[in-house]
Amino acid sequence: MLTLAYLLSAGCGSAYVTVTTSALGKAVGLSQQAASAHLAELERDGMVRRTASGRGRYIRVTDRGYAEMARMSSLLRAAVEGVPHRVLRGTVVSGVGEGAYYMSLSGYVDQFRDMLGMVPYPGTLNVRLDSDSTGTVLALGASEGTLVQGFADGRRTYGWVRCYGALIQAAPGGTAPGDRPTVRCHLIRLERTHHDTSIAELISPRNLRESASVADGSKVAITLD
Q: In this structure, which topology does domain 2-61 adopt according to CATH?
């Protein structure tokens, strides 16, 4: 991950930047040949993209590469501090309307009822997480949470859903009125999603916008069990 860290520090997270393999090798303690081979490996894994213009070679870290660095950052923070950072912070945003459809499919609903003891309200609450919280979610282990299996209905297949128990509350200073009620919910991670990694989706038997007194722009805190 030293290579990705160096590339991000060189500005490759937001634009294509010229980075020579000799400079990269010197920065991360590799020979020029080894640095070149490592870049090729990262490109095959979808972590970086490279392009050529004239004699120059330009590199950019992809969203997948950034997400992997965020995940590693969260793991390292947990190792150094001794306890995982389990409070997520972000802002409520509108979704694209797909949550109501998927949360109403019987292949999911039956499993939610059997495994979580609840039937979700038809829709998800979407929260755009800050960078630290995004890393925390990406670092959640495969052994955590409850796995709802994917299924097929004869027309198409649907991916798995992993559910993590949580509490949501509007943060002080946000746009939500009242005494900021705390509401039980589940954060879900999907095998297939149109959202980027910074978007957390929450489900509950209740309408979370109403029960947590939040709206688009509300700052919220999500505490994972």
A: Arc Repressor Mutant, subunit A (1.10.10)
What is the spatial distance between Cα 165 and Cα 107, in angstroms, rounded to a whole number? Answer: 20
The string of pLDDT tens digits covering residues 166-205 is: 999 998 654 444 457 889 999 999 887 777 889 999 999 9
Neighbours of 58 (CB within 10 A): 15
Domain ranges within the chain, ordered by starting residue = 2-61, 84-224
What's the pLDDT at 83?
52
Task: State residue 13 phi and psi, 5-degree precision.
Answer: -80, -20
What does the block give as tokens for 58? 């330009």
User: Which fold does the domain 84-224 belong to in CATH?
Assistant: Elongation Factor Tu (Ef-tu); domain 3 (2.40.30)
Q: What is d(CA 114, CA 14) in angstroms, rounded to the nearest whole number?
A: 44
| Residue for token pair 């859903």 | 161
pTM above 0.85, yes or no: no
Query: Can you name the residues that pair with 222 across neighbouring β-strands?
Result: 88, 168
3-state class (DSSP) for residue 66: helix
For the segment 73-87, what is each residue's pLDDT rounded down to a tens digit?
A: 766 766 666 655 578
